[in-house]
Amino acid sequence: MTHGLDTTAFDPQIRAQDDLFRHVNGPWLRETPIPADRATAGAFVKLLDEAEKIVRGIVERCADEPASDEERTIGALYRSFMDVERVEQVGAAPLASDLDRVDAIGSVADVVRTLGSLERSGVASIIGVYIAPDRGNPDRYIAHLVQSGLGLPDESYYRDDSFAPIRDAYVGHVATMLELAGFDAARERAERVLDLERRIAAKHWDRVATRDAQKTYNLRSADELSAMLPVFDWTAWREAAGIGPEVLAEVVVSQPSYLEGLATVLTDELVPAWADWLRWHVVHAAAPYLSSAFVDENFAFYGRTLQGTDELRPRWKRGVGFVEGAMGEAVGKIYVRSEFPPAAKERMTELIENLIEAYRRSISELSWMSDETKKRAHEKLDAFTPKIGHPETFRDYSALVAEPDDLLGNARRALSFGMDIELAKIGQPIDRDEWYMTPQTVNAYYNPTMNEIVFPAAILQPPFFDADADDAVNYGAIGAVIGHEIGHGFDDQGSQYDGTGALRNWWTDGDRSAFEQLTAALIAQYDGLSPEGADGQTVNGALTIGENIGDLGGLGIAYKALRLALGDDEPDPIDGLTADQRFFLSWAQAWQGKTRPAETIRRLTVDPHSPPEFRCNQVVRNIDAFYAAFDVTPDDALWLDPEERVTIW
């Protein structure tokens, strides 16, 4: 490893001009197995594993030698998960009260009330609820209602012939889980579950439609909500869920036709099927916290069948994940004490400033955008808020109760605790210090309603960020990540929000039309791509367009930012590689990754991100600087004719 690039791991038999991804990662792709308990491997997963080990040390210390009440709660959560003897002893007994509630169902009204009563148990509902800033008025919180109710990953799993084997396996899995919970006629019940979910799935919007910021923004009053689905008693549901009337006084309905369509499945005739559906989802929600028979069967379907993973993750890893899900910021507060040096924030601040300046200059030079829209784009860029490392104020968990001998109870209390925090936002000022990821998360995000870019501490490590690497390597990796997140503010959906976070059109009609022509060309580029292990299934260009715009803009602007940082000084080559070459090689190194075939197919269906090889190769094919850096010619595999290259930002 020299200067952040492991050039000894490159494949000299594959030219960067033909396949940058495999030139940099070829030997690793051939020789590195995917861990038995993972569906993927690569740069992201390596950092995840490293962060997980650090967090394990934190939670085990809290379990053995807590230094505060908060640490005692962390320890109690972990100990309850690791107490295998206790978990095996109680078996499915903790489900009794919920299943008794389901047994009492005799009408649609009972179904609705029972859905509400299970809302705090983590049991799937047919309507999902979350609290977030109002896209039309981002200075207030509002409840959002979204389609839900499926046990398979996506509505297409219920209709596409290619997923018929998955549906058959799903019925077998549901039957086995119901048998474990003590139900008779489990196969017949499972068939009813699939039939009901098929009916629900037929009302679902597809993944592309659910990305649409305009179509999914539909304000409704409480009276209008009731009129959309009269058979659903919203008052009975929310009272059973412990939700106050203010939460539903006005809501955003994301998929109105789905909500209206539920009238055809919430019928007296289907009440027995709803009871079986609820039984199944009660068992499914609790499965990770029950005895090994439930855990193993849950993994057999959701891990082995859907993702192709060979082995269940070790219990300590699942225990760490459980604690992070319940008290992620409390763990993160401890994590950053040792894992986030001040120098990292200083360097990141400099990188972000250069990326924003590069975006500013690039926008000024756009040939397809009018001065009027450029002015508004600059205003939005000026309003960006970066967050680096960790929140300034961490969440208070003092109201969360955890018992070392009550795993499922802890899981449900943690869920209810989190739900109360969310519900309490209604009517309160927007908390602009809130983070939606923990510091130990290896990821980053853009939040359009707050116009903020957020970079948790755990991603600020090699190969994404290396304090000892030269600028070219850092700009090619974390610089492109920064550019990607800024780019989400200007992708097909993020570009519909202004600098205040409001869903408001700040474009001229002509500029929006020009933008859509460019995005259509990018969609077409990705539509025909099929990764290894996909059995011919291709990328959905419309589903992935937002992330593809983020990748393309992110790398292109990161390159401009690198040239800004270097100024008039052209660094000497390192190991025979120019700064521009190191920039693109660093980009390829950051996308090192491989995925099991079953998981590849699942992601192509539901994931808005393209596979790693295309996030690397297809992006550079559109960037002129890549051609200059490696002297790419029409005879090389990555060549794309200049008129076919897309530059949006």
CATH level 1 name of the domain at 7-32 and 347-385 and 465-644? Alpha Beta
The CATH architecture of the domain at 7-32 and 347-385 and 465-644 can be given as: 3-Layer(aba) Sandwich
Radius of gyration: 25 Å
Q: Could you give the order of strands across the largest sheet?
A: 2-3-5-4
The CATH homologous superfamily of the domain at 7-32 and 347-385 and 465-644: Collagenase (Catalytic Domain)
Q: Overall 3D geometry?
A: globular
Give a description of the structure.
Helices cover 52% and strands 7% of the residues. With 649 residues, it is an alpha/beta fold. Among the domains are: 7-32 and 347-385 and 465-644, 3-Layer(aba) Sandwich (Collagenase (Catalytic Domain)); 104-289, Neutral endopeptidase , domain2 (Neutral endopeptidase, domain 2, Orthogonal Bundle). It has a 4-stranded mixed β-sheet. The chain has a 3-stranded mixed β-sheet with strand order 6-8-7, with helices on one face. A two-stranded antiparallel sheet has the order 1-9. α8 packs across α12 and α15 packs across α20 (541-566). The radius of gyration is 25 Å and the shape is globular. The model has no long low-confidence stretch (mean pLDDT 96). It comes from Aeromicrobium camelliae. Residues 17-391 form the Peptidase M13 N-terminal domain. One of its GO terms (molecular function) is metalloendopeptidase activity.
